[in-house]
Amino acid sequence: MKRIGIFTSGGDAPGMNACIRAAVRTAIYHDMEVFGIKYGYDGMIKGDIFPMDSHSVSNIVQKSGTKLKSARSKDFQTKKGRERAYYQLTRFGIEGLIAIGGDGTFTGAKVFFEEFNLPVIGVPGTIDNDLFGTDNTIGFDTAVNTALQAIDKIRDTADSHDRVFFIEVMGRDSGYIAIQSGIGGGAELVMVPETETTITEVISTLKKGWTRQKTSSIIVIAEGDEAGNAVEIAEKVKSQIKEKDFRVSILGHIQRGGAPTAHDRILASRLGVGAVEGLREGKKNVMVGIINNQLTFTSLEESITKQKPLNPDLIRMVDILSI
Ligand SMILES: Nc1ncnc2c1ncn2[C@@H]1O[C@H](COP(=O)(O)OP(=O)(O)O)[C@@H](O)[C@H]1O
Ligand SMILES: O=P(O)(O)OC[C@H]1O[C@](O)(COP(=O)(O)O)[C@@H](O)[C@@H]1O
Predict the structure, then answer these.
(1) Which pTM was predicted?
(2) Where are the membrane-spanning stretches (predicted)?
(3) Whose atoms come closest to the Cα of 100: which ligand?
(4) Which of 166, 196, 217, 310 has the fewest CB atoms within 10 Å, measured from its CB?
């Protein structure tokens, strides 16, 4: 394979740039040509495609966001859009693709591979860490650390004013950021979409703490929790407990920005190298990941359909540690 294309799609995630850099330089190292595709599938359809060299990825390893920009494309979900995208790729002589993104990006990549047989390797880039076939996704570690710093800061105020804080972290369908930042930040309770927590349980956890002279409490909630978002949960609790001061803090997109941690830069670099070398070896329709420190390839089908459950030990630990 001589010419490959690379793009980022869906949400951005800290470390995507380190991955782009690694992939571009690995391709050049192996005498391949690399083309950047801007704005994900939208750019593919429009032909927003340009040659990349070693210099074009200078000074980005430490930056979040994505140099190739990202987009959520409606047109790629139509056959006509994908035909147009394939036509554009053939115009540039692109023979293989590296798709950095989450499950939506991989769903699109899989459909595209099945229709046009163009080899594609997915690289897991989402702060949510909800992809099967890798222990961690690019951006997850940075997001957890950002959430943790915010929780530490909020705890100062919670403590001074004897308040209960409901802190909402990202995770549309996944509690990975919540559970890790909650444990690291010493939360009394962590609410995640993977397990059910009732308002009665929230109140009982808070009351237990108060009987042990706890004056402030932190509850971390994943945005996709089945009991509602942080505002809704706080309202329900407030309506039953009048004597306490409650506050809600929604951390939002700060979790998707900021310099990637060392862990994310190294993970992203390893995956970028692995993706290009995988394409060279003839791998296709797979996601590159790292499991137990070993580079692995998992079919795109499995990466999007199989669940990567939260470690039950971590869920149990929250209870033990908040005693
Ligand atoms: N069933 C599908 N068919 C074709 N393309 C899809 C499909 N599902 C998702 N995509 C493409 O992948 C893009 C990224 O998916 P999205 O869910 O937004 O982000 P992520 O990759 O981070 O999960 C979508 O905007 C769309 O263009
Ligand atoms: O930037 P947007 O489109 O508001 O996306 C927010 C979503 O992005 C995420 O951080 C990750 O989403 P992706 O799987 O698309 O990368 C979710 O946790 C969150 O709900």
Answers:
(1) 0.96
(2) none
(3) 1
(4) 196
Spatial CB neighbours of 14, under 8 Å, sequence gap ≥ 6: 64, 127, 138, 139, 142, 143, 256, 257, 258, 259, 260, 261, 264
Same domain, residue pair 67 and 132: yes
Whether residue 277 is found in the same domain as residue 232: no
Q: Do 182 and 155 touch, CB atoms closer than 8 A? A: no
ipTM: 0.95
Model confidence over 232-285: pLDDT tens digits? 999 999 999 988 999 999 999 999 999 999 999 999 999 999 999 999 999 999
- Split into its structural domains, the chain has a count of 2
Q: Is-contact 191 197, C-beta < 8 A? A: yes
Note if 128 is an active site residue. yes
Q: Is the minimum distance from the CB of 172 to ligand 2 under 6 angstroms?
A: yes
User: What CATH number corresponds to the domain at position 165?
Assistant: 3.40.50.460
The answer to whether position 235 is within a domain reads yes
Q: How far is the CA of 251 from the centre of ligand 2 (A)?
A: 13
